[in-house]
Known about the structure:
The protein is an alpha/beta fold. It has helices at residues 2-8, 48-57, 61-81, 94-97, 102-113, 126-130, 133-145, 162-167, 177-180, 187-202, 215-224, 243-253; strands spanning 14-23, 29-40, 44-46, 87-91, 120-125, 149-155, 172-175, 206-209, 228-229.
Amino acid sequence: LESALRHALERNELFLRYQPKVDTATGSMLGVEALLRWHNPVHGTISPVRFIPIAEETRQIIPIGEWVLRTACLQQVVWQQQGLSLTMAVNLSAAQFQTSNLIEVVASILDQTGIDPAFLELELTESTLVHNPTEAAETLEKLRSLGVGIAIDDFGTGYSSLSYLKRFPVSTLKIDRSFVRDLVTDPGDRAIAQSVVALSSNLNIKTVAEGVETQEQCVILKAMGCNLVQGFLYAKPMIAEEIPLAYAAISSVQKNC
Ligand code: C2E
Ligand code: MG
Ligand code: MG
């Protein structure tokens, strides 16, 4: 896999899928998350859960991540021109976050693609940020000053430090799927989700619930005040061409829980 991955980018084996994020208040689609996919002629389709750790180890994630960011930004601009105002969320790996020229790379991609930075959000996990919090805070401030949003992905599963929520310029918290899965039956998960929403709203941070698969979960999350939901209930990650249709379908159905 490691050697196959080395050629994946140049051989056009990588592509992106986009998963809608839906506003709980209006039922309309406000944005998407770009999710990386790899299809190799020999190995078939390989899950990002498998190949991203390899790409991180070999530092291939740096050119790959740059390609993801550029491709996602270009796509956002295309949709914008078609009249679809969608926020684009892009996952950033720890190795990428720690590169010394990250700010220059992001700034030049913003410039080259012409995306309005207000429509770009970078998703980082807690483990990326706790490694060196002082340096992380500086990098996040620089990213924010470019105008892009910062989301904490898989919130609650890592070293959830409450002090960094105050120190870091975070715009969104993503409640991890492990708390959403048993929301209906597990009072403990409900208490955690509710607390994350309350904390976020007091700190002026938006919340997104990941992995929402049922109407019941959505109803509970909406009642809690969670701003956005993302999951198979609304849509699976899809190719770019399917998004305009999903946009219209989600907005018209108003599968508003
Ligand atoms: P993530 O960023 O937390 O992405 C959410 C994952 O949950 C995605 O898996 C998505 O397909 C899946 N998911 C969404 N809704 C549901 C649902 O309702 N039920 C269930 N069971 N799953 C749902 P995916 O696409 O396999 O990605 C896995 C992880 O790989 C991502 O987790 C992210 O950490 C990483 N990843 C994906 N693309 C990129 C990328 O471009 N760069 C980096 N650095 N990491 C990426
Ligand atoms: Mg993510
Ligand atoms: Mg996540």
